[in-house]
Design a protein that fits this description.
The structure is a single chain. By secondary structure, the protein is an alpha/beta fold. The protein folds into two domains: 41 residues, no CATH class; 257 residues, TIM Barrel. Helix content is 29%, strand content 19%. Strands 3, 4, 5, 6, 7, 8, 9, 10, 11 and 12 form a ten-stranded mixed beta sheet that branches. Strands 13-14-15 form a three-stranded parallel beta sheet. The radius of gyration is 22 Å and the shape is globular. The termini are far apart. It comes from Platanthera guangdongensis. Pfam families: PI-PLC_cat (PF26178). Keywords: Signal.
Length: 396
């Protein structure tokens, strides 16, 4: 009897620890990050899957997947909302912080994991430009995160180390000090990467080719919410160049995608860029993997229609890693949904693949380049139980 119980115990242990030491693949059960294969980490998702499982730590690089020969507005970029509002960030004012956090990683970690657009809230504070999560346009000791120059230096270091990458900054801007933004960008060393306002299309034309932006080393795009700064500092006024849906709870109403007050209607094609927000007014990390899964994909389809059949260029989320860990779940939860993407509409393809928004089936055309077909097959191969076979459909 004792031997029988021992055998049962060993079988139970073996079944619960089926892999370890880097041998666990995507969605395999795990107990620590060290169990998971390279490019993944061990995480849990309340309401998404039971226990802890290996999930992706970074997104697919769209420039390597499709190449960088298309205009900037033909790609999609994973965007973090309040990128600076980081869980566990120590106070830099000596006063305990009493405000919301929206992301789990440092800005450097976000960039290294594939985030390519950052939403930052800039304020005048203590004679400098700070990043704050505040209300009423005023930064306080208890809402301040850090001097903006510290975050901008992280971005400068990333761009310096990654000469083929492009970063976009979308600023909710409350800086009124004369040339305040220009000075802090100069102090951080970022001005040398700045994409000039004079090259930004104002009438709905395509943006310059990504390859051209890289060659000219104009790899930082900055948009401000303060209209006057387009004239006073040469920083692009955001809504001259992009349309944007509602943010917070208003942007999460199923089946509804409409422009926020400052933005032109989503159908205004004189703005070449589209920003889609999908995050609640009050961020809850445990709920993010649900928000950033099938819900998000459904909203992207709704906003695609609302924006005149244009996919989002910027997809803004809270707790971005939950975005990665649920990307494969959508195949399982809603396998019947299908999106036919022609190679001619490369923008639609790259926006679904490069942002890892693969919750809808994609009909793979034989006319697409072989490497693209193989990349999709590779992405699908990570699905458990061979379900990838039923999801890959080859069209004409």
């Amino acid at each position: 009897m004792r031997n029988f119980l021992l055998i049962i115990l060993l079988v139970f242990i073996g079944s619960t620890i089926a892999c370890s030491n880097g041998g666990c693949k995507i969605l395999d059960p795990c107990s620590s990050d060290s169990d998971c294969e390279a490019g993944t980490y061990c995480s849990s998702c309340f309401g998404g899957f039971s226990g802890s499982r290996c999930v992706r730590s970074r997104i697919t690089d769209q420039f390597k997947l499709v190449n960088n020969s298309m205009p900037f507005n033909k790609y999609a970029y994973l965007t973090t909302h309040n990128s600076f509002a980081i869980v566990g960030e120590p106070s830099h004012t000596g006063v305990p912080r009493t405000t919301f956090t929206n992301q789990e990683d440092t800005v450097s970690q976000q960039l290294n994991n594939g985030v390519r657009a950052l939403m930052l809230d800039t304020y005048d504070f203590q004679g400098e430009v700070w990043l704050c999560h505040s209300i009423g346009g005023k930064c306080n000791d208890f809402t301040a995160f850090e001097p903006a120059v510290d975050t901008l230096k992280e971005i400068e270091a990333f761009l310096g180390a990654n000469p083929s990458e492009i970063i976009t900054l979308i600023l909710e801007d409350y800086v009124h000090a004369p040339n305040g933004l220009t000075n802090v960008f100069n102090q951080s060393g970022l001005l040398k990467f700045l994409f000039p306002l004079s090259r930004m299309p104002l009438s709905g034309q395509d943006w310059p080719l990504v390859s051209d932006m890289v060659t000219k080393n104009q790899r930082l795009l900055v948009f401000t919410s303060m209209r006057a700064k387009q004239n006073t500092e040469g920083i692009a006024y955001q809504w001259n160049f992009m349309v944007e849906n509602h943010y917070g709870d208003d942007g999460m109403k199923a089946g509804n995608c409409s422009n926020r007050a400052e933005s032109a209607p989503l159908t205004d094609t004189s703005k070449s860029l589209v920003l889609t927000n999908y995050f609640p007014s009050i961020p809850i990390e445990a709920a993010s993997c649900g928000h950033n899964s099938a819900e998000l994909i459904n909203m992207l389809h709704v906003c695609h229609g609302a924006a005149g059949n244009r996919w989002a260029n910027f997809v803004a989320v809270d707790f971005y890693k939950a975005f990665h860990q649920m990307m494969k779940r959508s195949f399982e939860t809603d396998p019947a949904r299908e999106s036919t993407v022609s190679w001619k509409d490369a923008s639609a393809y790259t926006r679904i693949i490069s942002s890892v928004l693969d919750g809808s089936r994609i009909r793979v055309s034989k006319r697409w380049p072989l490497e693209v077909q193989e990349e999709i097959a590779e992405e699908r191969s990570h699905l458990p139980d061979g379900r990838n076979r039923s999801l890959i459909r080859r069209g004409g």
